[in-house]
Amino acid sequence: MTIDHANYQQTLEKANSDRKLASILSLSFGIILLAFKFYAYHVTNSQSIFSDALESIVNVVAAVITVIVIIVANKPADEDHPYGHGKIESMASTFEGGAILLAGILIVIQAVQVFAHGAKVEEVDVGLAVVVGAGIVNGVLGFFLHTRGKKLYSEALKSSGIHLMTDTLTSVGVVVGLLLVKYTGLSWIDPVVAAIFGCMLVYAGGKILIRSGYILVDAHDVDTLELIANLFEKHYRPGVIQIHFTRVIRSGSYHHIDCHMVVPEFWTVLEAHDFTERFEKAVIQDYPVDGELHIHHDPCRRAFCESCEVSGCPIRQAEFVRRKVPSFEEITAPMIM
Predict the structure, then answer these.
(1) Cα four-point dihedral sign 277, 279, 285, 288
(2) With contact defined as beta carbons under 8 Å apart, do 234 and 128 qualify?
(3) Over the stretch 137-177, which tens digit does the pLDDT of each residue have?
(4) Residues 6+ apart with CB under 8 A from 130
(5) Which residues constitute the domain of residue 148?
(6) Where are the alpha helices (DSSP H) in the chain?
(7) Residues 178 and 254 reside in one and the same domain
(8) Last-in-domain residue among 186, 216, 246
(9) 146-156 per-position pLDDT tens digit
């Protein structure tokens, strides 16, 4: 079932508004948590809390960039940007992944230096209270941002969510480290914990970098293509003989889809155009992201008669037997299979 144009535009506007609200919420909490963590570091002199606070700087910088990026990404296509501005979301994710990776490296270096020169942790209870509170807030906020990012197809929000959930794991490690210091009196445990979770940040930042890189070079996204394949099947009608070479350019929350469709070769250009235009509109209105679908016509060359349901065909060379439901591999293949 499709939705009318007015409701479709209203849905898109609400999605854009939700993206902005989520990014502003992330920034607000990031600033508050940053202040609390540096206060805790000042009181405790804990290297692991310092590593947590250093990552919070990255959180705030990334949140500022995310707010700006989402506003820019929502701008419509213009003469200088015919495909819109959505790619900037993936660029922001690349920056955030690099910043997380750099923070992880700096934390490891700092932890090694502190371990070598000796560490002394004070006021452990204050540090524990701040880190536990910050970890809970980051976990809830990270899950919220990642969930909204998946629903709204926002790479910037998804990356921020992953970042904050990773920060929560860091906080868990910091708490474990501080508890060990408190009950064993061994201060060297603190920089060791900081180094371990610095390595975790390096790993998380690397994953975000790789994912955003795939999007920037328009690598295949299996989930997106499977969704499109399901919509092609849902809106099938006689005349859609075969679809192949389906490709997607993900430009933030706007997707550019193109494919090749085999149509009856006896159709006129006008008939083929009107048919595929109706098909395009039906598919794109059911698509969960704002976007466009462009179809290139291929003639049937009388090679699909047994799977073609078009009635009254004047060039048919074999009777219709059954329609073959296209597989994912056929829809994405560059050649007719």
Answers:
(1) negative
(2) no
(3) 878 888 888 887 777 777 667 777 877 787 777 777 777 77
(4) 36, 37, 39, 40, 49
(5) 5-216
(6) 5-44, 47-73, 87-117, 124-152, 155-184, 189-216, 222-234, 269-286, 328-332
(7) no
(8) 216
(9) 887 777 777 66
